[in-house]
Design brief:
Layout (H helix, E strand, L loop, with lengths): L6 H26 E7 L6 E9 L3 H9 L9 H9 L3 E8 L5 H17 L5 H14 L13 E7 L2 E7 L5 E8 L1 H12 L6 H16 L3
Antiparallel strand pairs: 1-2, 2-3, 3-4, 4-5, 5-6
Helix pairs in contact: 1-2, 1-7, 3-6, 4-5
């Protein structure tokens, strides 16, 4: 014979379920999802909005490392190294200013040179990546990069799928590249030494981890 479940049991179940959901959401805020605006000039003019979602187990490992630490920022290099090893991620960048294609390509080359100097890619990989990049974006020479254009990357292992959608909604680039250098380039541009994104992204991790660890 089926006995009705006491109301108190349902209440306790609901509380525990909500608590687990809140804990999972807290971890996600801490280490899995980033919404960050990069300011590129001394006048603090917004340049690009980054929407980054990590889709493997890395956020859990980062959260375990930094939560409860008296000085979590002392672990910056370890946290960055974890993100550099990510296997699955979605990256979306929305440009908030317009500028010429050559400026964009030269800026990407500068990022690659920093990664090569840090040992994340080789000099040969740098030249190959730069050549691939310039060939891929050649079709944007006339329009350049426009305010509202969006570039999206999907990372799955050593496969990086890229889609570029301009401000009118037209898809200008849609393709994939395979190779560990592609993955290291993408993640290194965000978390590598001297990356313009790195400090801001790590600050989000440490701030959210502190809030999570305090029980707020």
């Amino acid at each position: 014979m089926h006995r009705p479940v006491p109301l108190l049991a349902w209440i306790v179940f609901a509380i525990l379920t909500v608590g687990r959901a809140e804990a999972q959401e807290s971890r996600a805020r801490c280490c899995a999802h980033f919404d960050y605006v990069l300011e590129k000039t001394i006048f603090k003019v917004d340049a690009v909005r980054l929407d980054l979602t990590i889709r493997d187990e890395t956020p859990d490992r980062v959260e375990e490392l930094v939560t409860g630490r008296a000085d979590p920022r002392a672990w910056s290099d370890s946290v960055a190294a974890m993100y550099l090893g990510v296997d699955r991620a979605s990256v979306r960048m929305t440009f908030l200013r317009s500028f010429g294609l050559n400026r964009f390509l030269d800026a990407n080359r500068d990022v690659m040179e920093k990664l090569a100097k840090a040992g994340l890619i080789t000099e040969e990989e740098l030249e190959d990546l730069d050549a691939e990049n310039r060939a891929r974006f050649a079709g944007l020479a006339e329009d350049g990069i426009r305010d509202g254009d969006v570039i999206e990357h999907e990372l799955r292992g050593d496969t990086v799928t890229t889609r570029y959608t301009d401000v009118t909604g037209a898809v200008r680039i849609d393709g994939l590249l395979v190779g560990s250098a592609e993955r290291r380039m993408l993640l290194g541009s965000l978390f590598g030494p001297n990356s313009e994104f790195r400090n801001g992204l790590l600050d989000l991790v440490f701030t959210r981890a502190a809030t999570s660890g305090s029980g707020e």
